[in-house]
Design goal:
Helix 1 packs across helix 7 and helix 4 packs parallel to helix 6. It contains 9 helices and 11 strands. It has a 7-stranded mixed beta sheet with strand order 4-3-5-6-10-9-11, sandwiched between helices. A two-stranded antiparallel sheet has the order 1-2. A two-stranded antiparallel sheet has the order 7-8. It has helices at about 35-45, 80-90, 105-110, 110-120, 160-165, 170-175, 190-205, 220-225, 230-240; strands spanning about 1-5, 10, 55, 70-75, 95-100, 125-130, 135, 140, 180-185, 210-215, 245-250. Strand 9, helix 7 and strand 10 (about 210-215) form a beta-alpha-beta unit. By secondary structure, the protein is an alpha/beta fold. The protein binds thiamine diphosphate and iron/sulfur cluster. Thiamine diphosphate binds near residues 60 and 129. InterPro entries: 2-oxoacid:Fd_oxidoreductase, THDP-binding, TPP_enzyme_TPP-bd.
Length: about 260
């Protein structure tokens, strides 16, 4: 959808849950964070939950979203977004709490928080951006770096004999979360589907069912050192081959 701005230039319509004064956003050109946050913004709009939202972002490039939404927001220590949002939700069960983080935050330094929140079935929604590296600090190896993938700390490619295989977060969460969990993996290369997964993850919290987790395959062209075509190909061919797209746990059959 397009809308005319005051200067008569056509602009893409922004979700009303976005904070317009903070745009243009601060992510690099071609970064997937913006696509994930657009999906989240549209999902918030469509569910009509803007007034109830609390958005938490992590350290890593997700922190650039600290003023992204026109909702109560908090920026937390590395990987601690999950327990911070958990505490807020426990203190006020009326809120809809979203913890947003990178794969470094969620699967390395914050993995204990993600794992235990999932085990306890906390009624929050965690959205994790999997871009295969530590983006903000210059592209070091992350738990999700693919076998053979070159990063700043794996200049000859990730050797899984040394570091083990890449973490499959949704599979881990799906294995340990109690009944009522919603777990899915989407990709920025299919935003319509990704928005649907995020919407179901929010609806699951609205319904009070249990823990919700959506991993989003994403791009980091700055550190991957890829052009637009190479970026897309890496997500579509390499990432989705290892990280399978789809829903792993879905307690509700109803449409949202
Ligand atoms: C305790 C701690 N250790 C290390 C850092 C440095 N640090 C900041 S961002 C970051 C990487 C974040 O990567 P990821 O979570 O994958 O998010 P991305 O930037 O890729 O979106 C690291 C290691 C830190 N801020 N705090
Ligand atoms: S460094 Fe990577 S993850 Fe961070 S804003 Fe730039 S492209 Fe996005």
């Amino acid at each position: 959808m397009q809308e005319l701005k005051e200067n008569n230039v056509l602009q893409p319509a922004m979700p009303t849950s976005w904070y317009e004064a903070s745009k243009p956003h601060k992510f690099c050109p071609g970064c997937g964070h913006g696509i994930i946050l657009k999906c989240l913004g549209e999902a918030i709009d469509e569910l009509g939950i803007k007034g109830k939202m609390v958005f938490g972002c992590d350290i890593g490039c997700s922190l650039l979203a600290w003023d992204f939404f026109d909702v109560d927001s908090v920026q937390t220590h590395h990987g601690r977004t999950t327990p911070v949002i958990t505490g807020m939700k426990r203190a006020n069960t009326d809120i809809i709490g979203v913890a947003y983080m990178g794969d470094g935050g969620g699967y390395a330094i914050g993995s204990q928080h993600l794992f235990n929140a999932a085990v306890r079935g906390e009624k929050i929604t965690v959205i994790l951006c999997n871009n295969g590296n530590y983006g903000m600090t210059g592209g070091q190896m992350a738990p999700t770096t693919l076998p053979g993938m070159k990063t700043e700390t794996t200049p000859y490619g990730r050797d899984i004999e040394d570091s083990g295989p890449p973490t499959k977060g949704p599979e881990m969460v799906a294995a340990v979360a109690p009944e009522g969990a919603y777990v899915a993996r989407g990709t920025i290369s299919n935003p319509r589907q990704l928005k649907g997964f995020i919407k179901k993850g929010l609806q699951n919290q609205i319904d009070g069912n249990g823990f919700s987790f959506v991993e989003c395959l994403s791009s980091c062209p700055t550190n991957w050192r890829t052009n637009a075509a190479q970026t897309w190909e890496f997500i579509e061919k390499d990432m989705t081959q290892y990280f399978k797209i789809g829903e792993l746990r879905a307690p509700q059959a109803k449409e949202v």
